[in-house]
Amino acid sequence: MESYTVCQLQKDMRFEGFLLVRSAEKRKDVKGNDYVDMNLTDRTGEINCKIWNWESSAEMPENGSVVKIRGTVQEYNGRLQLRVERWRKAAAEDPVDMNRLVPCAPRKAEDMTAEIRETVESFRSEKLRKLTMGMLENAGGDLSWFPAAQRMHHAERSGLLHHTTDMLRMAKAMLEVYPWLNRDLLLAGVIIHDLGKMDELKSDRAGNVSDYTRDGQLLGHLVRGITNLNRVADRLGIHGETVTLLEHMLLSHHGESEYGSPKAPMFPEAEALHWLDMMDARMNTMKSAEDKTPEGAFSEKIFSLDRRIYHPVYTDDAE
Asked: CA nearest 5: which of 51, 43, 48?
């Protein structure tokens, strides 16, 4: 059976393939029989699905999990709907390509993790090496798939690693221009500056953020990042200037109070971190908008940029 994406589905088509469970809920039909109402997605779109005659004792599909579906596309109230004939959870040996199901970072998580760890191992400062590695250990294995945002920049599977490694590469280039910056301090700030987002956002393993956590609502990732840093520093017995400088970098990396930073950057490495973060966030947002906009056209207004984006026609005969 030919493999289709969700956006390609039409009435009466047969479908068999892997999709991501956005939501799944058990309901009752007019006769009182159980059925499951699901919304399934890939990176091109979303479709509602029904599994009729559901066994009440059967295990429900989990939100954020991948399932294999076989069924027929129908139309109900003017909208396409997939009537499911067979389904099962995806197994470890299944050829599931997460890049087809959800927006993913352009590099493998294990490669980005190795890049970060190699950078930390290169630090000359023992304190900064221990603190940074301690923050990575505190983040744990979830860092491999965690997104960087709910809707804005790097809202993708492994987006936090993507954002961090792109900033690391820019920071290393910046150090060629400004060699008087403290290399270890700047790179440590880049690596840990957004780790607090893992306490701020509710995300499934596919990188879909459903909401903000209680910590996210009450504190935010800047404050939670500092408290996590303090816990790591206390555990390692490291105190003094190094910890204070990192705390200030975490607190000030949004640049101004309008964007959540109660203090503006007050030393060069903190200022550099702010602009690296701003540059990477905005370029990623522009790239995402450009990818969804035809050449020669303008996007819808981008909330985080407060403007529309133009997708240039990059050819010599564009005129």
From this structure: 43
pLDDT tens for each residue of 223-270:
999 999 999 999 999 999 999 999 999 999 998 777 778 899 999 999
φ/ψ (deg, to 5) at 81:
-145, 140
CA quadruple 18, 24, 202, 132: dihedral, nearest 10: -30
Using alpha carbons, select from 218, 214, 244 the residue that is nearest to residue 229.
244
At 304, the amino acid letter reads S
- 61 and 165 part of one domain: no
Q: Looking up tokens 């709907």, which residue turns up?
A: 81
Same domain (yes/no): 263, 210: yes
Radius of gyration of the chain (CA): 23
- What does pTM read for this prediction? 0.78
| Number of structural domains found in the chain | 2
- Supply 6's token pair: 């969700």
Q: How far, CA to CA in Å, does 219 sit from each of 30, 137, 230, 249? A: 46, 22, 15, 17
148 plus 213 within the same structural domain? yes
